[in-house]
Each structure stands twice: as structure tokens, then as C-alpha cells.
Amino acid sequence: MSRIWGGGWGGQCTLPQFPGGAYCDSHEKQLKRQGYLTHGRIDGPIPPKKRKEFEMWQGKLKKQHASSDAAGSAEGNVVTLTDGTGFDESSWRSMGVGAGESRRAYRYRTGQEPAPDAASARPRPPRARPKEPKSKVRAKKPPAAKR
């Protein structure tokens, strides 16, 4: 089994599985619809296209972590994820925040809260403020002048 995507680190879906099943509702539907999972669990090697995407993101993340290590971070050496044959769960759980990995997914994978300045912290757009409703009360017209 290989783990695919999860922020470039190979995280897995954190939604509850069906009783007796291997997938959540969303992944079960995707598997029925297209015959494979775009992200999630696969049996066998990582598809070549997805492996290249992994390597690209892991390279970026290694550089990012290396620069933060030079600045005094205690993150340590960053390892990359490989096919499931050499998979070590403890090293997977100790990897830093993946590209686009949500705080929830990071917390699920590692059991820790991500640092406030973690790479996954995406800037959020400002909340839209509701527009003031137009008044439904219409101003009364002055009475027509009598002739």
C-alpha cells in the first residue's frame, strides 16, 4: 500500500470509514465513479505522475525546512516519503507540515498542534460583511396639491 498526497507527505483521509469498509463515504463514491482514488490509499507503487508531484513538493518542503533549521528551528532533518515497501510510520508521523496540509490533518497525523507560523497556515480571505438591507418602508409622497 502507498499513501498518496496528504500535503506532499502522504497523509491519509481523516474522515470516519464505513463500518467494515476501508474508505469514507467520499472516497467510496470516488472509487465507484472513476475506478481509482486520486488521493488516498492505493495498493502497489505510487503512480509515476503522482511520484513526480511528490518529489517536486518534497524538494520544496525540504528547502523550506532547511532554511528554517538554519534560523534555529528544532525541526531536524526532513525525510521524504517513498513507496510502501520502506514505509516507517514513526518517521511519517514526525514529518513537518506538508504543502497545503490542513491543521486538522497535521494534528491527526502527528498528534500535535502545528506551530502558528506553520507552512499550512493559509491566509484566509476577510469575511464578507452582510450588506445593509434596503429599507422596505417607503417614504410617503406628500399629498397632491388640490387645484
What does this structure look like?
By secondary structure, the chain is mainly alpha-helical. The chain has a domain at 2-69 and 85-110. The protein has four helices and two strands. It has helices spanning 25-34, 48-70, 89-94, 103-110, and strands spanning 2-4, 40-42. Strands 1-2 form a two-stranded antiparallel sheet. It is elongated. The mean pLDDT is 69.
Helix count?
4
Within the largest sheet, what's the order of strands?
A: 1-2
Based on CA atoms alone, the radius of gyration comes out at 25 Å
Estimate percent helicity. Answer: 25-40%
Q: What is the beta-strand fraction?
A: under 5%
Mean pLDDT: 69
Return residue spans where pLDDT drops below 50 for at least 5 consecutive residues: none
Helix-strand pattern: EHEHHH
Strand count:
2
End-to-end gap: 92 Å
Structural class: mainly alpha
Summarize the structure.
The protein has 4 helices and 2 strands, in the order βαβααα.
Overview features:
elongated; 4 helices; mainly alpha; 147 residues; two-stranded antiparallel sheet
What is this structure's SSE topology?
Elements: E1 2-4, H1 25-34, E2 40-42, H2 48-70, H3 89-94, H4 103-110
Antiparallel strand pairs: 1-2
